[in-house]
Design a protein that fits this description.
The chain has 367 residues and is mainly alpha-helical. The protein is built from 18 helices and 2 strands. Residues 1-6 have low confidence and may be disordered.
């Protein structure tokens, strides 16, 4: 029997499927919030990191908190693009900065799904692209995509930058990469992807085009610019890294992760090791799948940065969420089955992700 065709156009299927997954998440959150007497909307726009972004949007940089152990948490740890957009939108739409953050996040989520679809379709065809976009929407910590966080904004910029590289549009890739560098420190992985791909392209073609050189020069400017800004503001060339270290986000080569595992009960430690083994297996599958070089470098870079830092362990799955290339192997596998089989699988994953997200959001610990 012929394989059922995708509804309407593949792009509509990708964006419609993504919006459906996130809608399921919001509906489940509303149900659980009503049942527990909690404010689900407030949890989306005014909790954890969202509070810091809103404060920056409303008052600029300069706020800090001294913890009982003497550590100082400064708002300079948070990159400026999201709060700048919150500030601008709140003025235009006459809404509070938190609501503006949700507008940015939700709009960027659709843009990210679009870019992810384009990258997947460029590599494996339109069906793979559709499934890749939807799978990103059912990622275990996908509830963060509905929060006033930077994950969707960064992923949108990264996906379209990578797509621009795949299409040979180097200047656009550099500009989008620079914007990503004003969004999250993880942009270092994107800068590496653009740079390494450019070097390989030059070696292969034995020439350097002006557009390629311009793209490579522009790509790191956002990330470097903010690091320099913090250095000038704090009076130290390494101030940015000191700010991050005070938040527990220094690079320790994975020591904190190893200590965390050792400190767990043996059953939990075995489960976590199994999860890390699965992650490693996915990375191997990405390599064996022959993914395009920029996407592969970016994916491995995001995973590496997420694992070698000393950050709170519970945030690591969220930090890896922009590495959508990890989902290409399961997307390709799902593309080989019938739509009537793939849809229930994706629906079940969407519900599971939504339930996990609702109870995490309405609980006490940050993602």
């Amino acid at each position: 029997m012929p394989r059922p065709v995708l509804p309407r156009t593949p792009l509509a299927a990708a964006l419609g499927g993504y919006v459906a997954t996130r809608s399921i998440g919001l509906v489940v959150l509303a149900i659980v919030a009503a049942a527990t007497g909690k404010d689900g909307l407030h949890r989306l726009k005014g909790r954890w990191d969202s509070v810091w972004y809103v404060r920056i949007a409303e008052h600029g940089y300069g706020y800090e908190v001294t913890l009982p152990n003497g550590d100082v948490h400064k708002d300079l740890a948070f990159f400026p693009l999201l709060p700048a957009l919150e500030r601008g939108l709140s003025a235009v739409l006459a809404v509070d900065a938190g609501t503006a953050g949700l507008v940015v996040s939700w709009s960027a989520g659709i843009a990210a799904a679009w870019g992810i679809y384009r990258c997947g379709a460029e590599f494996g065809g339109e069906r793979v692209g559709v499934l890749l976009a939807v799978l990103w929407g059912v990622y275990p910590t996908a509830f963060v995509q509905s929060m006033a966080y930077t994950e969707t904004l960064f992923t949108a910029l990264a996906a379209w930058s990578l797509y621009a590289v795949l299409r040979g549009r180097w200047v656009l890739a550099g500009v989008l990469c620079a914007a990503a560098g004003l969004t999250r420190p993880t942009a270092a992985a994107l800068v590496a992807a653009v740079g390494i791909t450019a070097v390989v392209t030059v070696v292969r073609e034995r020439r350097v085009s002006a557009r390629l050189a311009a793209g490579v020069v522009i790509a790191p400017l956002g990330w470097l610019g903010y690091v320099v800004y913090v250095g000038v503001r704090e009076g130290s060339a390494t101030a940015y890294f000191g700010v991050q270290a005070a938040w527990g986000n220094s690079i320790d080569g994975g020591v904190a992760l190893a200590r965390f595992i050792v400190g767990l009960p043996w059953a939990a430690a075995l489960g976590l090791c199994a999860a890390l083994a699965l992650l490693g297996w996915l990375v191997v599958l990405c390599v064996r799948q022959g993914q395009p070089l920029p996407l592969l470098v970016y994916t491995i870079g995001v995973v590496f940065v997420s694992l070698v830092g000393a950050a709170y362990f519970g945030s690591r799955p969220r930090l890896m969420m922009p590495a959508f290339g990890l989902l290409l192997p399961p997307a390709a596998a799902l593309a080989r089955v019938r739509t009537r089989t793939a849809v229930p699988v994706l629906g079940g994953l969407a519900v599971a992700s939504a339930v996990y997200g609702a109870f995490t959001l309405l609980g006490s610990g940050p993602p």
